[in-house]
């Protein structure tokens, strides 16, 4: 209704100067007119400009005086004419204490009444209620003097109110009729050619949308980036798909003595089935036995009775270095060629589990094998490797590993934690490990390892490993996990 | 940090107590003033000489060049006046070795005494492998009368008053008494032996019942002046190391500093040895082996001065191109076995972080395992087909491998001998329980749930050296209001398509090359994990490589899943 009136008026008159005046002239509620103008303006059918006016309007108190008369007038009326008058107590009762308080003093000031010792008497015979007249003027929107305004404002009988209206002219898309809005483009629109005349309903570009699709696992995405880094650096992946390993390859070949605490049932999963290995390379076993018992190649050895049964015991491998040992042994069987090896696969520890430790996790391992490699080379390789992970500031700390010497813990300065954080372990394989395999004396092996889970947890801010790995991981988390940028910009 | 020691935590005793009482964060201002600061230090596992304050206080000033390397000596007494320990033949069946030494004129105070006991505890925990390899007994020599005998007797024959007791016990009664004491975890070492090891003096006073307890008579006190130390062992090398550690550390408090009185140990075959063996072990190391391993150029004099910081005495015995350094290893440095250990000490003294970081030059090529590469390509395709990848554990319970899947234990699984809990009883023989557990833990997730996993299962295999092998599998699961069998079937077909294996339309015609999905014909051959009649085998080139079907409602029940699921699992290695 209002829409039609406005559009037709504009069509014939070109402009509505004041929506307030217009609404009065067409006899429609101003609110309705305003809402219609806003809506039409949104579609550019009309162009609207704000008109703001400030008006004095009566407060609730002002309204009541307008109807019943000013307080002083009411008090005056309550006093009966004639010499009898009224007692003060009775007048108070008649007017009520509130009205009496406000009205009596003004009535006295205006010399309308006189309060004596016993009686209250009228002093004037006929009075005019000027306050009421003033209020009526304001109500009708007539001009009043500034002093009166100030006075009324002080008495809180009037309030300032902002009135908003519009001046309206034809808009860029002016038409006598608004077009119907569509929500979506359909095949029908394309076929009919309608799309040219369509007006689209406003669209929420920020609506959250969930796409259904398949996703890769966060930990394996990180694993892939590590794999890429190794391959870019010229490393060859080792075949690590053998979780069951003999103690011989897992410990003895690495020159880890048989009484070493890591070989305790508190740390290692031993097996019922298959409990022991069926075969080992016998001539190599002899060499390993003798290096443990009495040394050789310039080493004192550990000086204890090496037991074959201990070496035969099967375990779930405690580190992928067991595979490295097999690879290096294999390498030693032919003419020597330099190698860079890597692997990322599962290892098993029979240790207490907590928020950051599980009985199985992924070990990342790198091995470089060549003639005359040095500790400085190891640090250089580690610098290159960790730089690709965004860790540019490395420090090394001496440590002890049974099968590397020297051994170094790797520390990186973590900008977020503001401290040095251990990021891996490294070292040079002992000659007691390499020589019995048959590697030449001048061949050295540098190696390092770290877990895949720890850097991933730091990367994604996960503090419970079960939120990353295992059946308790939230599928929704896998779906919203971002791509892994490790190694992309370094 | 430079010395390879890690200052773990600087804290105070009260702070530790506060932590233990979970009062952390509650400020306690008045009490902080007079607390002693504790330094928690992590010591490399092979440096037994740094396990006590005496060793640390000796090593650090030497490292910093403030002190000189001590020389440990044996007191010069004739063999006939040495204390003697006679070893009886019977000990060979239970605990064959014993080594001894005496510290004369020692002065204890409370701190020293505490450290003395503390070092024994640490060694017992550490190199002694909870007393199985070595057990240390220390005695007030003035309460005893040599010569001593080391014997092995049946428990009923041994009677003595043990430490912290007032009356005499028979050894077998004593074992019963200690069984209730959870702190004594060494009983098992000798408990089942017909004879127990025991040490007597010439008056038949029991010194100790190793590795269980010492006698009360010879107990060490703050007033003890002369200490008799015996180490009984099943590993002689370790016993010597332990004895050397004890005497080298505490001879510092002897009247004659760093001097130890030897004891002659005479075996049943009259063979005699004198302990401790304190002379240093000389190792000749070519300079090139040290500098070449580290990657720095140092001359012999620089190397020897670095060695001095590490308590190793070095001397160049042949100069020039083939410079050789003779390194004397003190009795405290049993960890040095080979030239590389010397190189490490030089590197530590030089400072790891001062070594130039170099880039080795070797020509190698990056290469992937074919199985990983193929697996990754298949994983990507499965994810593209709308399945989300999960990653579950290799370790599982026996139930999860078989009974919970409604399958019979066919004894194909690798089983763990020492699991901490049932979660680690076995390694998985299929990926099924991992995926079902994932659905169970994600029951809040809107349906359908479409997940997959690629990973290894472990199976017994006699053809492998260790008797078991990994086998790479891929599995997928669909869970919704209805079974979605066709989704899983579609995925199998999709995988076959991407690995380029044709579908055999009619198995009766032509050769077997290609795959087919065959319903089981007989009930007996059906997989009981699936609903009967709602399952099929995946046959590749005439061989079964996988199965698919609607998961049996009983199995769903076992995993607390109340939505139907379809599942497929197949071999990956067959596509290589």
From TrEMBL, chain A:
PROSITE patterns: AA_TRNA_LIGASE_II
Molecular function as annotated in GO: ATP binding; metal ion binding; phenylalanine-tRNA ligase activity; tRNA binding
Record keyword Transferase present: no
GO terms (BP aspect): phenylalanyl-tRNA aminoacylation
Enzyme kind, highest EC tier: ligase
Subcellular location: Cytoplasm
Primary location recorded for the protein, binned into one broad class: cytoplasm
UniProt keyword annotation of Cell membrane present: no
Catalytic activity, EC: 6.1.1.20
Chain ranges of the Aminoacyl-transfer RNA synthetases class-II family profile domain: 221-471
GO cellular component: cytosol; phenylalanine-tRNA ligase complex
Cofactor(s) listed in the protein's UniProt record: Mg(2+)
Reaction it catalyzes: tRNA(Phe) + L-phenylalanine + ATP = L-phenylalanyl-tRNA(Phe) + AMP + diphosphate + H(+)
UniProtKB keywords: Aminoacyl-tRNA synthetase, ATP-binding, Cytoplasm, Ligase, Magnesium, Metal-binding, Nucleotide-binding, Protein biosynthesis
Subunit structure: Tetramer of two alpha and two beta subunits.
Entry similarity comment: Belongs to the class-II aminoacyl-tRNA synthetase family. Phe-tRNA synthetase alpha subunit type 2 subfamily.
Listed name of the protein: phenylalanine--tRNA ligase
Organism: Papaver somniferum (Opium poppy)
UniProtKB/TrEMBL annotation, chain B:
Domain B5: start-end pairs: 278-357
Organism: Papaver somniferum
Cofactor: Mg(2+)
Subcellular location: Cytoplasm
Cross-referenced SMART domains: B3_4, B5
This protein's name: phenylalanine--tRNA ligase
One Pfam family here: PhetRS_B1
UniProt family annotation: Belongs to the phenylalanyl-tRNA synthetase beta subunit family. Type 2 subfamily.
